[in-house]
Amino acid sequence: MREDFLHFIWKHKKIPIANLISTTNEAIEIVKVGTHNYFAGPDFFNSQIRIGNQLWAGNVEIHIKASDWYAHNHELDANYANVILHVVWEEDTAIYRKDNIPIPTLELKTYLPEELVLSYEKLFSKSGKSFINCEKQIEDVAAFTLRNWLDRLYFERLEDKSKLILKLLEDSKNNWEEVLFVMLLKNFGLKINGDAFLSLAQHVNIAVIRKIGGNTMQLESLLFGLSGLLDESNDDIFFKELKKEYQYVKLKFQCTGDGVLKPAFFKLRPPNFPTIRLSQFSNLYSGQHNLFSKLIEATTLEEMYSIFSVDASVYWDTHYTFGKESKKSKKKLTKKFIDLLIINTVLPLKFCYAHHHGKPIDEVLIAIISDIKKEENTIIHKFDALKVSVSNAMESQSILQLYNEYCTKNKCLQCAIGNRLLKGND
């Protein structure tokens, strides 16, 4: 038995609410269950409970065992002074306030329908080989319920991604252009080099980027140099040119790479080598003036594809690393990579910017991300196998949010799918 299951029972009145009796034989009538509190303090605020002939207004606290009240030291906490009802699975001891006045207690185990307990046990009886708790039941959930929940999860995921943006905005004193620079550079590094590229971005003064942004060579040399990619000796001509340019820019603008994490090459496919990604990033910034304004004003996927249509510098047409020639090919940002930039950088930034200025943008974001192909990964494939169809990037983002924030954390009782499976058809 879990405490959040008892919260679910109380919140949705999953007990026969007529003829409830306290453990001291007083009649209990639930007038208002109250507002569910997910933070510190009593579990439900502003409840209204009639106990005997008296209507009480206050808070409700829920525990597995009544003695948990003392185990959690609630009798010493002023936040619990206004608890009007203690709801427990089992009353193993009487509970008193600090002034020795008893707190009325409702014991749930005598009222809970057996079929609800069985549904709960079925939902949480995942074997070690199971993917998610509800994998044998999710197909029974109505498509309308599932789609509405996935729509909500996409915006929940946007809000989670907004946390870093809002922190960067605070650190930069509301410099949106700087936030874009940091977020874009971070996401150019993908998972393996994301942290390294983030540390690089946070060591670069945006004022310096504005001054040298139109010069690809200088910008590329600065990013390569601060990343430690020019530290070694190399007889390659382009390497020497970049290193010379870096020494000039470093001295002129008093830049330092101290504390910047060195990017990795290991386990990466050559197109994702940091050399290629930093060059592509440099060409994006040198080729696009007012990049932030363009991305904020873009309302279609085609506009964004046009903005991100950039190559690495010519040298990289025949190289992936310094001094080692490869088969000639343009190192252009692929549509799949641009999609990731749009999903993880542009749309969260547009979401934050619009909300910061009080402008509605949800429909624009939905239109854009619904045009992007779904992501392909193990999690999406496993949901496909459970007959949860995923047709675009909005739905794949929602599925990732569902899996990472609910399924893996056993938050089935906070999930619309788990709620529906426990509620049945009521």
TrEMBL record:
Q: Which InterPro entries match?
A: DUF2851 (IPR021272)
Extract the Pfam families matched here: DUF2851
According to UniProt, the name of this protein is: DUF2851 domain-containing protein
Origin species: Cellulophaga algicola (strain DSM 14237 / IC166 / ACAM 630)
